[in-house]
Design a protein that fits this description.
Blueprint (H helix, E strand, L loop, with lengths): L6 E4 L3 E4 L3 H8 L1 H4 L21 H21 L6 H13 L21 H15 L5 H7 L6 H5 L7 H14 L8 H6 L1 E4 L2 E5 L3 H19 L2 H23 L6 H8 L4 H5 L2 H11 L4 H11 L5 H11 L5 E5 L5 H15 L11 E7 L11 E3 L5 E3 H4 L3 H5 L4 E8 L5
Parallel strand pairs: 4-7
Antiparallel strand pairs: 1-2, 3-4, 5-9, 6-9, 7-8
Helix pairs in contact: 1-4, 3-4, 3-8, 4-6, 8-10, 11-16, 15-16
C-alpha cells in the first residue's frame, strides 16, 4: 500500500500525490498507460511545436483538480464521503481512456458507431471486472446515475475539471498565454446549490475569463486553419488506406491492420461478445505510433493518393487552406479539382482527396438549462453567467460561429 502512494511531478501544478492504491492500480493498467502514447492535441504540434503533451498528463491533471474541488466543497459543508471522493477521482482519471490515436483527430475513424466516451465506458467496465468491482461507484458517477448529480457535473459540464485542466495545460504547452485561466480561483469559488454546481458571485470575473479563454483556444489552437488542414489530410490518408486494404492490400501494424481489414465489415466487430472483446483488446494496442509507422511505409505505396498524402503529412508539406464566412463558389472548387486531376493523373472519384471543402462550428458557451454555468448572487438567487455578467460579449459567445474552409495543394493556385 505505502509503495503505491507515489508523487508525480507535473509541469503545470507541481507535485501531485496519487491519492490511493486503487488510483495507482488504474494508472498502472495497460489501458491507462496507453494514454502516454496519445497526443492530447492531435497534430497541433505542426503549428505549436511544444504541444506534444499526452492524454496521460491530462488525466492525471483532472484527477488532481477533482481532489482539490472535493476538499473545497467539503470545507464549505457539502457532504462528500471518502468513498464518493475516491469514486469521482476514479471517474475523472479514466474519463479519456477510450480515446484513439491523435485523440479527437481520428474520432470514429476506426469504429464509426462508437465515440470515445462509449469506448471509455466499455474499458471502465472491463477494468472493473478485473479489479473485483472496485470501480463500480466511479462508473455510476461517470454515467450520471449516482444520486448526487453535482459529482457528475464536476467531470462533465461547462465548468468541469476536464475543461479547467485542458485549457490550462494546452495553453501552457502551446505557448498561447491568452488561453490561461485562474483554475485555483474558480475552484475556490465553487458551491453546490440544489445538487447543482454553482460559482459564488465574486468568482464572476474568473468565469468570464474562462469563457473568453476557451473561445481564444478554439480559434487559435484547436481550430487553427493549419491544424485543420493537417488533420483533414490525415483522416483522408486513413480513409484511402482502408480502400486500398480492401482492394490491393496495404502495409499496417497489426493493431491498425485489424481495423483497416474490418473497415467494410462493421457488423463483425459487434455481432458476438467474442468479437467485441477482440476489438477492444486490439483498440487498446492502437496508438499514435501505429499511424506514424504506417504513414512512413505508405509513402512508397503504388497508389498516388495514399503515397502523396502520406509524404505531405510526414514532411509537413500541408495543403493550403482558405477560411471564409460564406460557402466557396462552385466554379472555383471545380477549377481546382480539374487542375488536381490533371496534375496528379487522378480518377474523378479520387479528386476529393486533394480538393475539399467543409464547415467548422464553435460555440464558446451554451445557455441551455442543463449545462449552463450557474452564479450564486449575493442575494441568494441563481443566475446564468450570461445574465449575471456585465460583459455583453459573454451572451454573444453563446451563439454558434460558423466558418467555411477550402483545402487544396498550394501548387494548384
Amino acid at each position: 500500500m505505502t509503495n503505491k502512494l507515489k508523487i508525480i511531478n507535473d509541469p503545470v501544478y507541481g507535485f501531485i500525490n496519487i491519492p490511493s492504491s486503487i488510483h495507482f492500480d488504474i494508472i498502472q493498467h495497460p489501458y491507462f498507460q496507453r494514454l502516454r502514447r496519445l497526443k492530447q492535441l492531435g497534430l497541433s504540434y505542426y503549428v505549436y511545436p511544444g504541444a506534444t503533451h499526452t492524454r496521460f498528463e491530462h488525466a492525471i491533471g483532472v484527477m488532481y483538480l477533482l481532489g482539490i474541488a472535493c476538499i473545497e466543497l467539503i470545507r464549505k459543508g457539502q457532504e462528500i464521503s471518502p468513498e464518493e471522493k475516491e469514486a469521482v477521482l476514479i471517474a475523472g482519471l479514466m474519463h479519456d481512456i477510450g480515446h484513439g490515436p491523435f485523440s479527437h483527430t481520428l474520432e470514429r475513424a476506426f469504429i464509426k458507431d462508437l465515440s470515445h466516451e462509449d469506448l471509455t465506458l466499455l474499458y471502465m467496465k472491463e477494468m472493473n471486472n478485473q479489479m473485483n468491482g472496485k470501480l463500480s461507484l466511479g462508473i455510476e458517477i461517470f454515467q450520471n446515475k449516482y444520486k448526487k448529480k453535482f459529482l457528475y457535473k464536476l467531470i462533465a459540464s461547462q465548468l468541469d475539471m476536464d475543461r479547467l485542466d485542458y485549457l490550462k495545460r494546452d495553453s501552457f504547452y502551446s505557448g498561447v498565454t491568452e488561453g490561461g485561466i485562474g483554475t485555483e480561483r474558480i475552484i475556490k469559488m465553487l458551491r453546490v446549490h440544489n445538487d447543482e454546481l454553482a460559482v459564488e458571485e465574486k468568482g464572476i470575473y474568473s468565469v468570464e475569463q474562462f469563457i473568453v479563454a476557451r473561445r481564444i483556444m478554439y480559434w487559435q489552437v484547436y481550430l487553427h486553419k493549419t491544424v485543420i488542414a493537417a488533420e483533414e489530410m490525415l483522416k483522408r490518408a486513413i480513409l484511402r488506406a482502408k480502400q486500398e486494404c480492401n482492394k490491393n492490400g496495404v502495409f499496417a501494424t497489426p493493431a491498425l491492420g485489424y481495423f483497416l481489414d474490418n473497415a467494410y465489415n462493421e457488423n463483425y466487430i459487434f455481432n458476438a461478445s467474442e468479437n467485441l472483446k477482440t476489438t477492444m483488446e486490439t483498440f487498446s494496442l492502437l496508438d499514435d505510433s501505429d499511424i506514424i509507422v504506417s504513414l512512413k511505409e505508405w509513402t512508397n505505396h503504388s497508389d498516388t493518393v495514399l503515397s502523396e498524402l502520406s509524404k505531405r503529412i510526414l514532411n509537413r508539406d500541408l495543403f493550403k487552406i482558405e477560411i471564409g464566412t460564406k460557402k466557396f463558389e462552385e466554379n472555383k472548387i471545380n477549377k481546382l479539382k480539374q487542375k488536381a486531376q490533371e496534375k496528379y493523373n487522378l480518377k474523378e472519384e479520387d479528386v476529393n482527396f486533394f480538393v475539399f471543402t467543409d464547415i467548422i462550428k464553435n460555440k464558446a458557451y451554451s445557455t441551455e438549462n442543463d449545462s449552463r454555468i450557474n452564479i450564486i448572487l449575493n442575494s441568494g438567487k441563481i443566475s446564468d453567467i450570461a445574465k449575471a455578467s456585465d460583459l455583453s460579449n459573454i451572451e454573444a459567445l453563446s451563439k454558434t460561429v460558423e466558418k467555411y474552409y477550402l483545402c487544396y495543394p498550394k501548387e494548384l493556385e
